[in-house]
Amino acid sequence: MEKTRENKMGVMPINKLLITMSLPMMISMLVQALYNIVDSVFVSRLSENALTAVSMAFPMQNLMIAVASGLGVGMNALLSRSLGEKNFKAANKAAMNGMFLEAIGYVIFLLIGIFATRVYFAAQAGQGEITDLGVSYMRICLIMSFGVFMQFTFERMLQSTGRTFLTMITQTVGAVINIILDPIMIFGLLGMPKMGVAGAALATVIGQIIAAALALVFNIKKNPDVTLDVKHFKPESNYIKIILSVGVPSIIMASVGSVMTFGMNKILIAFSSTAVAVFGVYFKLNSFIFMPVFGLNNGMVPIVSYNYGARRKTRMTKTIKLAIIYAVLLMCIGIVLFQTIPDVLLGFFDASDYMLEIGVPALRIISLSFAFAGICIVLSSSFQALGHGFLSMFVSITRQLIVLLPSAYILSKIGGLNAVWWSYDIAELFSLALSLVFYRYMYYKIIKPLELSE
User: What is the pLDDT of residue 165?
Assistant: First the structure.
């Protein structure tokens, strides 16, 4: 029987819709950020070298998440647009081809985990304790990464159909399990062997696998908008091409972040391993501010994509404007925290006096760029929702590889370690200017013509 009901993304008042779609995602992202922080807090109790090793693993972990998330974004955009067009058959095919691509992504990182982990760490830290600890940690994360790829797949299906409350449940369950298992596996509590950084990795992947299984159950039991028919599935090049046209720029955009982080680690380790640890701690702390904004985006993207498919200009533009307002407000909270209590934040990671000496000015300088970053994140997601992820990719490459890294290197030579952190503010201003230019282009080319059909 043909489905004719209207999804809430096409009829609910925008402010209420954005809040109801985004709030569960923001809460779940906050929990995700919390367990990222807790993970490093526990590891920091082992040693500063252990914290540095986990920090150096971040670029590869970020790359893995970039692939899983980027493919999910491509599937999400196509699935939501198909639902907006009332093409339910296309929505099902988008979901199945998205699953297929995520499976390929896992195989790639499985092979990296088996064959390339030590090479990766040796390129940053040479041979020694940091490399040994990093290999132990990252090999588990990559080889067992099928959990994270499955989790992104099934959670994006729920998001695409407006069921963000269910994704809040899956992400929260996974994060809570991780937080509970971390001290047990790291320090050998309750009869478990003391596993150190390997225990932190194992706790992470177990949480991801359980969250993925729960998300799959929710799709089967509580998501009537998508039907998963694995038995009769065959990859279809036209669907794969559309998913990749949005997903690949998103992957490249996030992957550029991994390259940037790798490059910054190389610049910072010339000063000291503590500088690298501070950089890693900054990423853990900023996730507590940025993750809710990403949650806001995850709620916004299907709304924009759905109403683009339904040719409703006013609902699209109002969604984007409200998302920018909320993103900037969230970022302002981050600015206040980083400016007023940076020593307290660093203290969670058992910071030494030298780590505080480096970290306090670092947090204060970098946080000046947060408000600009909030605007850029929303605009970038808007480009993806409208099927033009290459614009987001261009902004990201410009920001991180053309502006940030060269600025950091030059400032490290002429101004020392404290000057390096200003590269973030410089890069964010460039990113904001470029994002505004591209949004103006998108508005007149894609959004404004839709008013003729309203």
Answer: 83
Q: Which residue, 127, 175, 126, is CA-closest to 147? A: 175
Q: Is the dihedral of CA 354, 357, 359, 360 positive or negative?
A: positive
Specify the pLDDT at position 3.
44
Global confidence as pTM: 0.74
pLDDT of the residue at 333: 94
- The segment with the largest mean pLDDT, out of 26-35, 37-46, 221-230, 331-340, is 331-340
Cα 123 from Cα 90, distance rounded (Å):
45
Mean pLDDT computed over 13-23? 84
86: left (phi over 0), alpha (psi -120 to 50) or beta: left
